[in-house]
Amino acid sequence: MKSKLILIILSFVTLTFAQKTDYTKEPGYFEFGNLPFGEKIEPITEINIEEPLLKMMSNMVNNKDSNFSELIGSIKLIRVSEYELKSLSKEALSNKINTIDKELLNKNWERIVKTKSGKNIVNIYVKPDANKGYSGLVITSIDNNKVSFVNIVGKIDLTTVGKLSEQFNIPSIDSLKHK
Question: What mean pLDDT do residues 32-53 have?
């Protein structure tokens, strides 16, 4: 018990003093750019989980679920931003989603899901890598009352990625569970 506590404390100290990694150079990273909000609006949900914390979590759950441990151990970054649509223009956001769609496709991302139901939109993309796997995942989503932007950077395994949604409550990723 003491050794686990010491390991957690050492991991926390390491995380606290670790240098910031520049994830923008990773092939699975995508910058969403300026959002068409007009005024400065704070996200209702913002998640930024970087590689050191993901590795620590991977080590902590390794004995309980080795597949999940391997999945999060191979991810470098999880970013989620979610905004309320109360004062946001759905038309401007829809245009932004279309701009993001074109940019991702021009950068050789593959769109694996595109749904439109009324004014609701969900697009999911993966970035193929040289090893016939994926190095990134992007989700853009507009629903009745919020817009979400998700970027997961690192080795992506689509057969188990749905577990990320359960563990981190990532919006719109649950649609991958049924693929």
Answer: 81
What are the pLDDT digits (tens) for 79-111? 999 988 776 677 778 888 899 999 999 999 999
Q: Which helix (H) or strand (E) holds 97?
A: helix 90-106
Q: Is the pLDDT of residue 120 over 50?
A: yes
CA-based nearest residue to 137, from 105, 174, 110, 106: 110
Residues 64 and 13 sit within 8 Å (Cβ to Cβ)? no
E strand intervals along 85-133: 110-117, 120-128
Residues 6+ apart with CB under 8 A from 80: 45, 46, 47, 148, 149, 150, 168, 170, 171
Q: What one-character-per-residue DSSP string does 47-82 give?
A: EEEEHHHHHHHHHHHTTT-HHHHHHHHTEEEEEEEE
Q: How far apart are CA 158 and CA 177, in angstroms?
A: 8
Percent of the chain with pLDDT over 90: 34
Tokens describing residue 79: 């970013």
- Helix %, strand %, coil % of the chain (to 5): 40, 30, 30
